[in-house]
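ok so i was messing around last nite and threw this chain in just to see what happens. nothing serious, just curious
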Amino acid sequence: MGKLSFLKQKKFYINLLMIILLSFIILWLTLKLLNIYTRHDKVYELPDFTGMTTEEVEKTYGKEYNFILIDSVYSKTEAPGTIVQQDPLAKSKVKQGRNIYYIIVAKTPEKTSMPNLKNLSLRQALVLLESNGLQVEGLKYVDHFARNAICEQRYENSIIKPGTEIVKGSKIMLYVGLGPDQQKTQLPSLYGVSAEEVQHILNMAGLNLGNEVFTDSDSIQYMKVYKMDPPFSKGAVNPGTYVNVWYHSNKQFDFDKERNNLLHEDSLKYAEEHTSLIDSASTVNDTIASDIEENYEDDF
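result:
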């Protein structure tokens, strides 16, 4: 009998068919169990947990989500022990069992010492504030001979002395010098910058963060700037200008594609605005070329 004689046997094809059927069954079961395990296509709209206590969310939603406390902040307006911030944000689409990170209002505020920012440069002051756990309420520019030097530091509209005990997370208003020439400041490009970095970048440039608009309902970590006002194309603005920003989630918005579109539109706009200059330059170049050609012919 030949080596391939088994191909003529009916038993071989029956076994082959059984193997194929069994493989399909195993594959189907695997995919089915995987969908059940990952809860494929089963998403829920996340409730707003702000104002609730840890005990309340655990009792009401403990079976649906896994709650993780990451920090606490002091607030004069919110009740101690209640949630003030959650990640992902309310109304985000999530799967059951998702980790929900939240921040609560501290029952006893943590304090820090107010540093002496006077006469420091704006950049030095911002770094020092951050290292002491304090935030910038805003920048107010005033007449002063030293540009971007800190002239005054205020907390709740009153001058705060260095060394004063203050609650961590408190916001400090900085009065900054305009300098003798009172020059304008260049707008930074915020396109694609994360929501967590926007205020720091603006403050470093001598500007203030204005209104923030979140177009998508998603976790703050995915939010990036796609629009700013005044726009980056404006160039320079007065120091202390408030810049409004709009955010998209990078999971729902293609920032790279949109950036390329914007660059293309800017190129076309530049070409249209400078068509007359380009045409004039071409005419001048043609005239120069003609003169050179005539001179070349005269030489021979």
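not much to say yet. The chain has three domains: 43-105, 111-177, 185-264.
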